[in-house]
Fold this sequence. Notes:
Elements: E1 6-11, H1 16-28, E2 33-37, H2 45-52, H3 56-60, E3 63-65, H4 68-71, E4 75-81, H5 96-107, E5 115-120, H6 129-133, E6 137-139, H7 152-169, H8 179-195, H9 204-218, H10 222-241
Parallel strand pairs: 1-2, 1-5, 2-3, 4-5, 4-6
Domain tRNA/rRNA methyltransferase SpoU type: 6-161
GO molecular function, one term: RNA binding
GO biological process, one term: tRNA nucleoside ribose methylation
Amino acid sequence: MNLDNIVIVLSRPEEPRNIGAACRAMANNGIHKLRIVGKKEEIDLDKVHVLAIHASYIFDNAEYFSSITEACSDCVCSCGTTRRRGKKRKGKLLLPEEFAKTANRISGTEKKGGKVAVVFGNERTGLDDNEILECEMGVTIPSSEEFGSLNLSHAVQIMCYTLFRYNEKNKIGYTPIDSKRLKKTVTTIADNLQKIGFFSVTGRKDMEIFWRDILSRSALSEGEAQYIEKIFDKAAGLSKKR
Length: 242
């Protein structure tokens, strides 16, 4: 997922401190594009900065529009957040995790992909029927029936975090060794155990299966496999000297 292609749209926000907290939530999760449906001159900038703290640059670089449609005009799709269901409020509301899959597919990589907008409504009313119709998709954040309404900045945090986590879990920091390569490590372990007399007559096969199952679940890197082999080689060598 290209988080630079994720756009957060706040429609008609009333509380400047919520805007500041939303900026901080975005920065926490590596998302930096903020668009606001409304007028900058109507926002108390000092109150925004109080809660934005070091994420104030996100607000300072925000863009302003007269409608959700205008704010999302360069996006491949826009997804409105809502807890209310209804005939005019999208037939199916995605869960945040489901939306993350769609956002991942559309946003692409660093050099490719299109923009995806996540749209949040006014603190008091949320997105009204007309605003939700301006969005191509709908997403809902499950919450208790006892008190289902989320604070605006909290909703932004949940959505941004879900996108961030989806992006992180799909990054591969290394390539785990395959079963053929793992067999070499298991054989090295068994050979060295046999050299020190760990096995009497039987038992080697069961021990190989034991190590194979444990190490395969660990998804070893090549470096880790080599390190384990060296440990058992050295242990067997020391045992022989004694």
